[in-house]
Predict the 3D structure of the following.
Amino acid sequence: MDGLTTYFHPNKNSKMLHVGIIPDGGRRWAKVNNVPLAEAYSKTRDLLAEFTRYLFSAGVNELSIYLSSVQNFRRTATEIDSFTRVVSDALNNQIINLSKELNVKINIVGNSGSIPNDHLSPFLQTAKKAGPPPTGTINLCVAYNPVDELNNAFKLSGNKGNFLDFLWVKRPLDLIIRGGGANLTSNFLPLQSGFARLYFLDELFNDVKLSSIKEIMGNFTQLNRKFGD
């Protein structure tokens, strides 16, 4: 087991940078601004695209975005429909364009079956097309549950070797940014988050400005991280 923990411990000498984003507060933003939920989610989508471009330009190599937990799919049918429609549209438009623009690989992490297959298939077919080797990765966590991730990893490993090789997200997170005023991570990649710096913003995510993301990144790069040493 010592080998496993050493394997998954963040490497202080690594120049790679893995950022997580939890875009919380879409429903509250829709209510405060008296707009349909789909409009709130579309605003979130556009902000995520803006922040993603900045983060990769600032040296981030991997970005994990918590689009939804498995618990979110216990909401009303109307709310789930609004979410899946915006995600489906983003997958087949903005996200595909971002992957080409930034030369990054897109992974859907979690229960991709929560997205209608006729919406998901075009994205998967486009994502499979050959291109230059990607220089970065974006993980989109949809209907994500960490227990599901562990169960899947154990199953694929056949209980042999290093099951960590079969995790959906294999690299530890360096920092996590959450809007919405809640000081918790809501089961977002807990195994990968052990040594991540946590930045909680009081603003609903749709009110977060790029300047706040830049300030967080500036503060983070000045840290002297110990990694448990």
In short: The domain at 18-144+170-221 is CATH 3.40.1180.10 (Undecaprenyl pyrophosphate synthetase). The two ends are 19 Å apart (CA to CA). The helical segments are 2-8, 26-32, 37-57, 77-102, 117-128, 146-157, 210-221.
